[in-house]
Backbone:
C-alpha cells in the first residue's frame, strides 16, 4: 500500500486510489467526499489550496453567541466548534453579565519572542564581547525585513545574548523580542531570525576563536508577555439562585475555583473549559489553535504546578471572577484575508485589531468557564449536555418534528439514554 | 445591541439581525454565509444540529497523508487543519520512515479518571470509615449505568477516597478510575459520577456526624494513565544528508531535542508541532481537540518544568526518536456516528478501536515533530513554509496557471514577499 507521487495525483485520482486501497472500491465512499465539494469551482479551488492533498471540505458548524458586552461595546461572537452546548453556554453567560457591566479587559503587553539557539564551544566571555560588538550589525542585517512591520507600529524591540550553559553544555540563545502589530507574526519572526542567523554565522567565522553552530532559529509559541486580563464582577447578592443565597453561591463558586487551583486533575478540565470558548473564536477568525493551546497550558504550568488560569474572590461585598491568559493571535496574515468566512467573522467583530481580538477571545474563555462552574456547582453538567445530546440522537434517528417533541417532553425530567430513546420512538 | 430570544429565531432571522446590527445590512455579507450552506436540506439540518445558533458551515480542508507504516500496517491518515505544510510534512516523514520499519507503538494503559470533589467539615477518620462501609453501596447505585459499558469491556475499575486537606481546608475527593472501551467516555463518566454523588449525599446525611457538601462531580481531562508510546529508529548512517554525515545529523537532531527538554520557550513550540499532527487526525475523526491539548500540555509539565514530549538518542549505532503522550479519544459516541466525514475517516482507517486511534494519532505527532526538527536543523523552516505561503498568495491574487509557473520559478531561489510577488505579476 505504498504510493509514490500521491501529492501529484489529481483530486479524483487521489480519491480513486484511496477507494481501491482502503475502501473496497465502493462508490458510496467517494460520494461522501464529493457531496461536500462546493459547486463553485473557483471557491473550491481556493479552499483546496490552503493545505496539501485536499480531497474534501470538513464542515464545522459556525455559530453565534450574541450579547457579549466587552469594554462597553456589545459583540456577537462567531464560534466554530464541534462540541454541543459551548455556544449555548457562552450565550447564557454573556446575557447574565450584560446587565452587570459586562466583561472588562486589559491588554498587559504584546511582546513575542524568537530565538537563535546555538552551541558555542569556546569561552562565554569571548561570546559576550562578540555579541556586544556585533549587536548593531545583526540588527542592520534585518532592517529591510522589518521595514514594513515598523510602518505598522511593530518590529524588533530588543535582542539579548542568553547563557543557558547551566542547562545544556555550550548552549546559548540570542533572544529577539518583537511587536508584530496586528499579525500573529510567525512568518515575520522566522524570516528575521533566519536572516540574522546567517549574519551571526558569518561574523562568528571571522571573529570568534572557537566554533559556533546554529541549532535552530525559530519563534516561540510561548508568549507570557503577550498577555490579556479579563474580569466580571457584581454585588454578591446578584448571584442568588433558587436554592442558594448570593453569599452561598459565591462561596461555593470560589471553592470550586480553589479546587482547580490546587488539584491538577481538576485544573486541566477547568482550563479545557476556558479553551472551549477561546478556540471557537480562534477557529472562526482563522487563527492557529495549536499555538494558542500550547501557550495557554504552558502558562498554566509556569509556577511548577499546573493550575487554574482563572480565579475568583469576594471583596467589599462584590464578587470578582477573572482570567489572565497569553494570547498571540492576529487579524492580518495567514488565512485571515483569504478564507471568506474568516473575513466575515472579522467584519462581524467590527474589524478588530490583534489586541481587540485578545480581549474578545479572553472574554469568550471567561464566559465559558463561568457557565461550566455555574452548572457544576448547581445542577451538574449532564442536564444541559444531555439535552444537547438528545438533539444529536434525534437527528441520528431522523426523528420527525412530532417525535422530537415527544422525546423532549419525555426526557424533560429523566436521564437521556439512547436505549430509552429508541424504545420511546419504537426504533428496533 | 442587546437581543432576547436569539436562539429561537430562524436561521434567516438570525442572519438578518446580525446584518442589520453589525454589517450595515449589506446583502454581500449574507451571501458569504449562504454560499456555504449545503444544497441538501436534510444534510444541512444535520450539520446545524451539532451546536447551537448555527448560521453556516466553516470549511476546514480535509487532506490525506499516505504511507504511514504503523505497527506493520500502512495507513493513509485523514488530516483536517487550516495550516499549510502540515500534511506535506507528515507525508514526507511517513515516506522517510516507511522503508525503515515505520512507527512502532505501545499503548501503556487506558485508565481515565473522574472525581466527586467535596468538602467535609468533620474528622477525616470518620470519613475513612464511612467510605469503607459505603463503597459497595456507591458502586451498586451505578451498576445499571455501567452495564452497557461493561458489556463492551469497560466500566469502573476502582474507587478511592483521597484526602486533599493538605491543599485546601476540608477538601476530599472520591476518585473513580474507568475504562471506557472505544468511547472517549465523558458522558458516561459524568453520568456515573452524578448518580454516585446523589448516593453519597443521601448516605452522608444519615451516617456522618458533620456536613458533607458536594462541590463538583466531573471527569478529568488529565489522563496520565491513558498513555501511548511511539518510536521510529534506524541505523545512524541512514540519516546522512547532502551536507551532513549520519552521525553529525543524529547529533544535531539530539541537541535540538535537548534544547526542547531544558528550555520551556522552545518546548512549547516543539510540542505545538507535535500537536499539529495529532490535532489534524483528532479533528478528522470527530474527537475533541481541546481535551487532547489540555491533557498533552499538562503531561508535558508534570515534572514541574514544562518540557518536550519527545526524546531522541543513539544506542549501538541506531538512532531512536520517540514520543510518550496521554490520549483520551474515542471511535464511538459524540459526533463519530453522525458526521458523515468522520464516518468516512474511520472507514479509511479500517474502523480502528480507541487504542488503535491512540497509536495512529501518536504516530502523526511524531512524524510532524520529525519533519519540523529536520527542517530546523537543516535549511530552516521558512523555505518550505514560504513555498506553501506563495501558493496562498497566488490564490489570493487569482493568478493564472502561467503566472503561477512564473512566480514559482522566480521565487525558487529567493525569499517570498507579497510585495515582490505583486510587482512580478504587475498587480497594482
Residues:
Amino acid at each position: 500500500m505504498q504510493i509514490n507521487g500521491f501529492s501529484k495525483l489529481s483530486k479524483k485520482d487521489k480519491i480513486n486510489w484511496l477507494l481501491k486501497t482502503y475502501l473496497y472500491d465502493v462508490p458510496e465512499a467517494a460520494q461522501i467526499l464529493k457531496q461536500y465539494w462546493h459547486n463553485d469551482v473557483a471557491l473550491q479551488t481556493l479552499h483546496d489550496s490552503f493545505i496539501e492533498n485536499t480531497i474534501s471540505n470538513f464542515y464545522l458548524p459556525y455559530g453565534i453567541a450574541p450579547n457579549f458586552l466587552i469594554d462597553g461595546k456589545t459583540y456577537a461572537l462567531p464560534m466554530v466548534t464541534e462540541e454541543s452546548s459551548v455556544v449555548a453556554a457562552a450565550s447564557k453567560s454573556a446575557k447574565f453579565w450584560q446587565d452587570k457591566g459586562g466583561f472588562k479587559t486589559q491588554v498587559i503587553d504584546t511582546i513575542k519572542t524568537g530565538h537563535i539557539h546555538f552551541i558555542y564551544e569556546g569561552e562565554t566571555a569571548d561570546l559576550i564581547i562578540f555579541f556586544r560588538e556585533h549587536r548593531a550589525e545583526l540588527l542592520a542585517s534585518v532592517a529591510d525585513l522589518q521595514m514594513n512591520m515598523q510602518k505598522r507600529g511593530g518590529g524588533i524591540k530588543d535582542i539579548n545574548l542568553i547563557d543557558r550553559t547551566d542547562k545544556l553544555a555550550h548552549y546559548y540563545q540570542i533572544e529577539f523580542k518583537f511587536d508584530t502589530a496586528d499579525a500573529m507574526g510567525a512568518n515575520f519572526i522566522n524570516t528575521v531570525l533566519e536572516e540574522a542567523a546567517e549574519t551571526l554565522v558569518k561574523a562568528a567565522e571571522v571573529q570568534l576563536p572557537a566554533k559556533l553552530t546554529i541549532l535552530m532559529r525559530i519563534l516561540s509559541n510561548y508568549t507570557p508577555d503577550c498577555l490579556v486580563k479579563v474580569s466580571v464582577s457584581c454585588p454578591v447578592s446578584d448571584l442568588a439562585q433558587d436554592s442558594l443565597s448570593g453569599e452561598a453561591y459565591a462561596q461555593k463558586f470560589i471553592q470550586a475555583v480553589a479546587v482547580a487551583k490546587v488539584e491538577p486533575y481538576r485544573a486541566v478540565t477547568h482550563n479545557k473549559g476556558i479553551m472551549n470558548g477561546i478556540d471557537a473564536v480562534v477557529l472562526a477568525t482563522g487563527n492557529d489553535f495549536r499555538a494558542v493551546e500550547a501557550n495557554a497550558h504552558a502558562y498554566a504550568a509556569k509556577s511548577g504546578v499546573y493550575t487554574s488560569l482563572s480565579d475568583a474572590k469576594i471583596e467589599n461585598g462584590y464578587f470578582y471572577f477573572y482570567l489572565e491568559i497569553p494570547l498571540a493571535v492576529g487579524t492580518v496574515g495567514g488565512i485571515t484575508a483569504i478564507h471568506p468566512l474568516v473575513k466575515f467573522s472579522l467584519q462581524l467583530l467590527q474589524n478588530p485589531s490583534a489586541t481587540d481580538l485578545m480581549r474578545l477571545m479572553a472574554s469568550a474563555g471567561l464566559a465559558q468557564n463561568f457557565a461550566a462552574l455555574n452548572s457544576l456547582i448547581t445542577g451538574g453538567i449532564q442536564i444541559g449536555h444531555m439535552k444537547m445530546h438528545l438533539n444529536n440522537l434525534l437527528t441520528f434517528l431522523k426523528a420527525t418534528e412530532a417525535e422530537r417533541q415527544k422525546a423532549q417532553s419525555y426526557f424533560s425530567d429523566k436521564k437521556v439514554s439512547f436505549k430509552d430513546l429508541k424504545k420511546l420512538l419504537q426504533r428496533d
